[in-house]
Design a protein that fits this description.
Layout (H helix, E strand, L loop, with lengths): L2 E5 L18 E6 L6 E6 L2 E6 H7 E3 L3 H8 L2 H9 L14 H8 L3 H27 L8 H8 L16 H8 L21 H8 L2 H9 L14 H4 L3 H26 L1
Antiparallel strand pairs: 1-2, 1-5, 2-3, 3-4
Helix pairs in contact: 2-3, 2-4, 3-5, 4-5, 4-8, 8-9, 9-11
Length: 263
């Protein structure tokens, strides 16, 4: 977990491995594991050590920096956060991700594309980690590529190896069903209202964002706490059309998958 803080006072390095910074600089604390009172941090393109007590006493914490970038459509700040490995999955007090806010604010262009790319990368990493364990349990490995297609939408993080025996059968069964597509998928993350990023984009009428989310596998059938789908919230005809056609297409795909399983 990368902590982001704003320096209240300047600090001048006294050793070669220390980091100097100015008042107002954003510090990305990337390593707190050292027990000698020094933490590794990054400012801009510089990396070095800073005293941990400075962070405690002379900085202002920046909570949910990606969310702040999303609300303001600040692409430079977004890039800086992502380059410094700020979590793409962080939740604010409303239970929303940065993607929720980006979808709501309509900051498409380069901003939303970057968030989507990072989210896709996370999902892909988690998918392959899960399938690494699953493959060893399959009796018919010739069908592994078919099962891979089911896992492509999931960011389900697999258990530790020592715990795997408790989950083997359940995970394999999930891979064989359509349910695995929606397990902990970052695009399907709900906030406290039950809304996904797709709900937000639909309600705000951001056609380009709705289209981008659908293209990346966002589930159009998820209902929020009021039992409404993104289609139910659509106020723009073009948004409703996109969501309706996607729902029909998904239903056809699911039917095709079921047919394959029956063979």
């Amino acid at each position: 977990h990368v902590q982001v803080v704003k320096a209240i006072y300047a600090y001048s390095a006294t050793r070669g491995d220390e980091l100097s910074f100015e008042e107002g600089d954003l510090l990305y604390i990337i390593d707190k594991t050292q027990s000698n009172g020094w933490w590794k941090a990054r400012v801009g393109n510089k990396t070095g050590l800073i005293p941990s007590n400075y962070v405690d006493e002379n900085t202002e914490s920046i909570d949910n920096p990606l969310h702040e970038a999303a609300k303001r459509g600040n692409v430079d700040f977004l890039n800086e956060c992502l380059n410094n490995k700020v979590s793409i999955n962080g939740l604010d007090k409303s239970g929303s991700t940065a993607l929720h806010w980006a979808a709501s604010g309509g900051h498409m262009g380069k901003y939303i594309v970057l968030l989507l790319e990072k989210t896709e990368a996370l999902i892909k990493r988690m998918r392959w980690k899960a399938l690494f364990f699953i493959k060893k349990q399959l009796s018919d490995t010739s069908k592994f590529n078919h099962y891979t297609n089911y896992g492509i939408k999931s960011s389900k993080c697999p258990p530790q190896i020592k715990e795997m025996s408790l989950f083997e059968k359940d995970i394999i069964n999930l891979v064989k069903t359509i349910k695995f597509r929606n397990l902990n998928n970052t695009f399907q993350e709900k906030n406290k209202l039950g809304d996904t990023a797709l709900h937000n984009a639909s309600w705000k009428g951001h056609t380009d964002i709705v289209e981008a989310l659908i293209e990346r596998g966002a589930n159009t059938s998820i209902k929020n706490n009021e039992k409404k789908t993104a289609y139910d919230l659509a106020r723009k005809p073009e948004v409703a059309k996109l969501l309706k056609s996607s729902s029909i297409s998904n239903a056809e795909d699911y039917g095709a998958d079921d047919d394959e399983d029956d063979e």
